[in-house]
Write a structure and sequence with these properties.
By secondary structure, the chain is mainly alpha-helical. 59% of the residues lie in helices and 3% in strands. It has a domain of 161 residues. Strands 1-2 form a two-stranded antiparallel ribbon. Keywords: Lipoprotein, Signal. InterPro entries: MlaA.
Length: 254
Amino acid sequence: MRLRLLILPLILSLGACATRGAEGEAATPGDPLEPVNRQVLDANLAVDDAVLRPVALGYREVVPEYARNRVRSFLDNLSEPRIFANNILQGRLLDAGHTTMRFFFNSTVGIGGLYDVATDFGIARRTGDFGQTLHSWGVESGPYLMLPLAGPSNTRDTVGMVSDGFLNPISWLLPFEANIARTAVAGVDLREQNIEGLDALRSGSLDFYARLRSVWQQRRDAELGRTGDAGDRIDVLEDPGGGLNVLDDPGAAR
């Protein structure tokens, strides 16, 4: 079972929270759990400053960029069956075919996924997660959530994130320890990719919580709007709104 399943008790408890702040002020639209979410973010930042960011910096320092790229390609290839399953569930059969070809070429010619030869062949990576699938089925996003360690999400995407662990047959084939190791390595790799992005976001925001929420929501909206796109992907912390600065920060007026 994936580590992300540990967030389920938190989600159940958050669902029982009131939709108004502790001082009786109206909650931000779409974020009725803001007081709790802010506390979770504070805890996440404490863990990040003490553990995650130093580990990511050490990973970058010790592991050459070439090797990090091989690790990233390998992990991406392991997620292709999950993308395939969601392509099918969303009725995106052409994308499912492309994902199948990617997995085949990268697993064989690409030496188990260490090299992304499929992209070189013109077969760009598709998107596909169960949060997208639920969106395509008409499920509402629900309130914004700040998850422990996992970061920004909402109730729909949280259910989707957990469900993705069951949709990927590779998760069934790997032993429990291997799944934990895979999740840990993926987390370190993701944090390493975002060292500069998160640093800039934190230093350039009067209200980091509000800015992070805004950037995440815009990015997720853009992803959901291009579910049929031919592999066009957004960088992990790219702001689709562009041009946002501290003065545009929703929290700047707080």
